[in-house]
Write a structure and sequence with these properties.
Strand content of chain A: under 5%
CATH superfamily of chain A: Cytochrome c oxidase-like, subunit I domain
CATH superfamily of the largest domain in chain B: Cupredoxins -  blue copper proteins
Helix content of chain A: 55-70%
Number of strands of chain B: 12
Distance between the termini of chain B: 45 Å
Number of domains of chain A: 1
Number of helices of chain B: 6
Distance between the termini of chain A: 10 Å
Oligomer: heterodimer
CATH class of chain A: Mainly Alpha
Number of helices of chain A: 17
Structural class of chain A: mainly alpha
Order of helices and strands of chain B: HHEEEEEEEEEEHHEEHH
Largest sheet of chain B: 5 strands, mixed
Strand order of the largest sheet of chain B: 3-2-1-5-8
CATH class of the largest domain in chain B: Mainly Beta
Number of domains of chain B: 3
CATH topology of chain A: Cytochrome C Oxidase, Chain A
CATH architecture of chain A: Up-down Bundle
Largest sheet of chain A: none
Order of helices and strands of chain A: HHHHHHHHHHHHHHHHH
Helix content of chain B: 25-40%
Structural class of chain B: alpha+beta
Radius of gyration of chain B: 27 Å
């Protein structure tokens, strides 16, 4: 009875029953689905398209920056490309990425629920996303927008001749998709946990999604209000932000960052959740300091609301308010540091497997650390005066957003791919992809720290010749990164047909999602699970598995 | 193109640069060490405890709990030290030395205009003497710009709504970059220029190269052109407040509030005169919004400043937002 080993767990036969993929067929069965798993797939397809589009703009920018002169693109085109890159990657890829794809798919299963609390609202949120995305695409087709993703006034309201209203309308709509997803998750986590699944037995991914959802629900309405005010000023010239009309341009920055700083945590918290899952699964160990990691997510969500003006240290705020925002910014660094140290400590005496999801997460921990510590430079007031609005900032937030959030998304995608599709991805190709992403990423963005300290401003179409060598390195890195990102696109699609069939629990991991078949049945479980073990309790799981085997 | 000769560290050409760099180097060393430590820990632990047939299941032995407290308290102390250092530097950047030379700057899409107190004007080029604090009072004519001197480690956003003030003291003779660092439209990356730091004698020679009279005297001419002098007389008989000695003084308003007459007060009193009425005067002044451009406003400001007599105290620092 106690002789069950991981090999037994890993090679359990896939259930021969119908699953959510083959339960019915046809376009309408997808477009009108209320199944959280299918909606997750709809999101996956949509955001992948947006990721490719946003990546295309990034690649064109890096090619332009190969030489100091502005020779490949015109200034206006370059300005539109960095604007579209930012808007697409933030609003249409990163914010929905982990929550709307992996969260949608996995969260209800991790809770032992049949679906989210509001399946119709879940479908509505995807349609809102698509309306926003098509509005964005329409803007790209009819000429683009050149305000930067930050839409600073009065440039965006009075001076830009591009499609500002269309773009802000798209961002406004997609914001509601984000709000509804957050709402749905909060209610689901409160109301639909399986019997026995108490708060302290929840997987850390659920804690992270809970914190993220709070931020989505509370911060996104501020963005909506801000964008509406911007549209009103641009459209009918009511003076809100433009001093020529009696407004205050700094008011816009305060309101914009009141959403957009917490939005950083909407992007990174879910990746932290994935990191906790993957570290536990690939060390087969309870996360060190579970409660610290869980509460640090909530602490980050809360403190994230109190630091917005650290984007404005040279913008013209008073010396004393700058001091307060700098002080609070250092507080938000503490829970992030707690997480990094706890993940690292979990490796100690673990059973560490070097499979692809773990490779991504080990990379994530390192890169997130570098992104985090460079945030300490930017939070130091006097030093920020020199480095803000230079490439130092660009490098810093790409270490968080790409090194952190995107690596987390790819880790989660590989980790749950067997559950989602019922197939294994090819391990060696995936490892190669992870390696290329790590190397390419560092080569792209590390030189940008140096460029920034040298003084190269961001959003520059042409630059001083002495900055060229570092820019060439960065562009070379971006090419490697592009290959690293294209590989999964190929081998994941390949695996749908040719991948090895995944059993119920290919990683030998704990968590309710690994107790149901891959792909899961339409209602997730054949019978409602009852949870009697703590999160990541490997010995208990092995014992339970042993009992099922012997039945 | 010299691909083999490229800088990795910016030139230090101001009094502040060394202090900014000191903080930067401290952070680089400490944060670099922490990053290396974490990378090493990950690598070593992941190899040491890699999955083998004899450790398919992790040992449930945990690392000691005291670690948790350590990695909360130690980083926090370091964060607070960094906070204090950074704030100290920021305060230094906000406090303009007393004997500063006044330069006036206007940002507009896509050029920098500089005016010297003696009346010289230049575009995308700024001549300043070495080893003397330079105080720049600046505003934008259109969108938000940001004036950045990388070799001096200072920058400040330039707003269309009010004056911003920045200062630096160059320590090296030479030519250094000026960049605009707030995205401002099509030719943002072309909104660049050079600051020429000169020996004081060379600067005097350069100043001698002709102008239309000092900035204050040009402001005085505008003062008459706009007929400001009909109400703002030199004695207390006019319908408006006397401007002699006004700059830097404390003014009592009609609602008994007091306000320090700094750059932004003067700017506001010209563009929105009804916003703050001086006690004892009627709200009779018309607005000059849209009639006086930023360059002329700066000249008027220079004139009002000159009426204060020789500057003895530092005027108020960064205005509240």
């Amino acid at each position: 009875m106690t002789s069950v080993t991981y090999h037994d767990v890993q090679f359990l036969e896939p259930a021969k029953t119908r699953n959510y993929l083959n339960v019915d067929y046809g376009a309408l069965s997808w477009l009108l689905t209320k199944d959280h798993k299918r909606i997750g797939i709809l999101y996956m397809v949509s955001i992948s398209a947006m990721f490719i589009l946003g990546g295309f703009f990034a690649m064109m920018m890096r090619l332009e920056l190969l030489t100091p002169e502005g020779d490949l693109l015109t200034s206006d085109t370059y300005n539109k490309f960095f604007t579209l890159h930012g808007i697409i990657m933030i609003f249409f890829f990163l914010i929905p990425s982990i929550p709307a794809v992996l969260g949608n798919f996995i969260l209800p299963i991790q809770l032992g629920a049949k679906d989210l609390a509001f399946p119709r609202i879940n479908l509505l949120s995807w349609y809102l996303y698509m309306i926003g995305a098509f509005t964005g695409l329409l803007v790209v087709i009819i000429g683009g927008v050149d305000t930067g993703w930050t839409f600073y006034t009065p440039f965006s309201t009075q001076y830009s001749n591009t499609h500002v209203i269309g773009t802000t309308f798209g961002a406004f709509i997609v914001g509601f998709s984000s709000i509804l997803t957050g709402l749905n998750f909060i209610v689901t986590i409160h109301r639909m946990r399986a019997p026995g699944l108490t708060w302290y037995r929840l997987p850390l991914f659920v804690w992270a999604m809970y914190a993220t959802s709070l931020v989505q629900l509370l911060a996104t309405p501020i963005l909506a209000i801000t964008l509406v005010m911007l549209m009103i000023e641009r459209f009918i010239h009511v003076g809100i932000f433009d001093p020529a009309l009696g407004g205050d341009p700094l008011l816009f920055q305060h309101m914009f960052w009141f959403y957009s700083h917490p939005a950083v945590y909407i992007m990174i918290l879910p990746a932290m959740g994935v990191a906790s899952e993957v570290v536990a699964a690939f060390t087969r160990k309870k996360i060190f300091g579970y409660t610290f990691v869980a509460y640090s997510s909530l602490a980050i969500a809360f403190l994230g609301f109190l630091v917005w003006a650290h984007h404005m240290f040279v913008a013209g705020i008073s010396v004393y308010s700058a001091m307060i925002f700098s002080f609070l910014s250092y507080f938000v660094a503490v829970p992030s540091a707690i997480k990094v140290f706890n993940w690292t400590a979990t490796l100690y005496k673990g059973s560490v497997s070097w499979q692809t999801p773990m490779l991504y997460i080990l990379g994530f921990i390192g890169l997130f650390t570098m992104g985090g510590v460079t945030g300490l430079f930017l939070a130091a007031l006097g030093l920020d005066v020199h480095v803000t609005d230079t490439y130092f900032v660009v490098a810093h937030f790409h270490y968080i957003m790409v090194g952190g959030a995107v690596m987390g998304y790819f880790a989660g995608l590989h980790y749950w791919w067997p559950k989602i599709t019922g197939r294994m991805y090819p391990e060696w190709w995936a490892r190669l992809g992870a390696l290329l992403v790590f190397v390419g990423f560092n080569l792209t963005f590390f030189p940008q720290f140096i460029l920034g300290y040298l003084g190269m401003p961001r959003r520059y179409h042409a630059y001083a010749p002495e900055f060229q060598v570092l820019n060439v390195m960065s562009t070379a890195g971006a090419s490697i990164l592009a290959v690293g990102y294209m590989l999964p696109l190929v081998y994941l699609l390949w695996s749908l047909r040719f991948g090895r069939k995944a059993g119920t629990n290919p990683w030998g991991a704990v968590g309710l999602e690994w107790t149901t078949s891959s792909p899961p049945p339409k209602d997730n479980f054949h019978e409602t699970p009852v949870v009697t073990w703590e999160a990541y309790d490997y010995p208990a799981m092995l014992k339970a598995m042993g009992e099922t085997q012997n039945v | 193109m010299m691909l083999t000769d490229f800088p990795l560290f910016p030139e230090q050409a101001s009094t502040v640069a060394k202090q900014t760099d000191a903080l930067f180097i401290m952070l680089t060393i400490v944060c670099g060490a922490v990053s290396v430590l974490i990378f090493t820990m990950i690598f070593v632990l992941a190899i040491m405890y890699r999955r083998r047939p004899d450790n398919e299941l992790a040992q449930e032995e945990e690392a000691p709990k005291i670690l948790e407290a350590t990695w909360i308290v130690v980083p926090f102390i370091f964060f607070m030290a960094t906070f204090v250092w950074g704030s100290w530097l920021y305060f230094r950047l906000a406090r303009v030395p007393d004997n500063a030379l006044d330069i006036y700057a206007t940002g507009k899409q896509w050029m920098w205009k500089f005016q010297h107190p003696t009346g010289q004007r230049e575009i995308d080029e700024l001549h300043v003497p070495v080893n003397r604090p330079i105080r720049i009072t600046m505003a934008s004519e259109d969108v938000i710009h940001s004036l950045f001197f990388p070799s001096f480690r200072v920058k400040a956003d330039v707003l269309p709504s009010r004056y911003r003030i920045m200062w630096f003291q160059a320590t090296k003779v030479g030519r250094f970059h000026i960049f605009c660092t707030e995205y401002c439209g099509t030719l943002h990356s072309g909104m660049i220029g050079w600051v020429d730091v000169m020996q004081p004698t060379d600067y005097q020679k350069w100043l001698a190269g002709g102008s239309e009279g000092s900035l204050a005297s040009q402001g005085q001419a505008l003062f008459q052109k706009y007929a400001c002098n009909t109400c703002h007389t030199e004695d207390a008989t006019g319908r408006g407040p006397v401007l002699l000695g006004l700059y830097g003084s404390t003014v009592t308003l009609a609602n008994n509030a007091t306000v320090v007459a700094d750059e932004n007060y003067i700017r506001e009193s010209i563009l929105s005169p009804q916003a703050k009425i001086v006690k004892g005067f009627g709200p009779i002044m018309p607005t000059f919004q849209g009639q006086v451009n930023e360059d002329d406003l700066l000249k008027l400001l220079a004139y009002v400043r000159s009426l204060a007599g020789p500057r003895t105290t530092t005027p108020p620092k960064e205005p509240k937002s």
